[in-house]
Amino acid sequence: MGPEEAALVIVSEFGLSVRDPVVISDSNNVVLWLRPTPVVAKVGTRLRSRLALEMDVAKHLKIRGAPIVSPADELPQEVHRVGDIEVTFWEYEPADEQEPSPDDVACALFGLHTALRDYPNPLPSFQDELSYVAELLSDAGRLELLPEDDRLLLVSAEHRFRAELARYALKERPLHGAPHSGNTLRVGGAVLFIDFETSCVGPLEWDLAHVSDEIVDAYPECADRSILAVCRALVSVKTAALCWARFEHPALQWHAKHHLGVVKELMSS
Fold first, then answer.
1. Is the peptide bond between 36 and the residue preceding it cis, with omega within 30 degrees of 0?
2. Structural domains in the chain?
3. What pLDDT digit, counting tens, does each position of 219-236 carry?
4. What was the pLDDT predicted at 48?
5. In this structure, are residues 31 and 25 in contact, taking their beta carbons and an 8 Å threshold?
6. pTM of the predicted structure, to 2 decimals
7. Mean pLDDT, to the nearest integer, of 45-54?
8. For the stretch 163-197, what's the b/e string if a residue is b when 16 or more beta carbons lie within 10 angstroms of its beta carbon?
9. CA distances to 93, 94, 108, 112 from 188, in Å
10. Within 10 Å of residue 41's Cβ, how many Cβ atoms?
């Protein structure tokens, strides 16, 4: 059973009539707008699925009035399963064509962080993702399309920048984990965040490392620029590794090459 069929099986049990499902995204997960309903299905395709964590965080954020795309009200707000396929359901929000301004993104991210402060349940450390990346990089068989010299470069970079980060006393808090532009929508002029599978605890600089300098400058709290620089390096190591591991997906190829290039430049300086 494929992702689309699994989603349709579930929604049919709740009386939703779907005539024309549309794939919105097919990279880390398959995301489908179940047209004409106002519902989007997110079908987990990753071995490290965190859909249950994402749903729990999103329900908390919705109660707090945070700027997010909310779980759909039309179905139970939980992880649904068909066999070994996991599916969650979200409100469909038609995105504006205009890109949000740095000020608007910074304001929305601050609101998100504020709403996360009293999240009551345990969150993984941001370091957990980096440990997974280290494990991934150590196995050439999982990165068959990445040249061996580049894999070894990423291994060295991961060691170097994590050692540098360990020198700092980090103040940790609940974070989105990856609030980059691919995880934001501008809807009716407002910035909304999606994809909370990466929710974690870590330093503010970890979230800010995923956004532009203009957004960092507009963010209401000051970041430690030294910590931010190391976090930016680690984000590029992470993104390069994860995208090369799934290089067969066209949507990830540019990111794989771009972030590998960033790491090469950092390691040569």
1. yes
2. 3-91 (3.30.200.20), 102-268 (3.90.1200.10)
3. 999 999 999 999 999 999
4. 61
5. yes
6. 0.95
7. 79
8. eebeeeebeebbbbbbbbeebbbbbeeebbbbbbb
9. 9, 9, 14, 18
10. 28
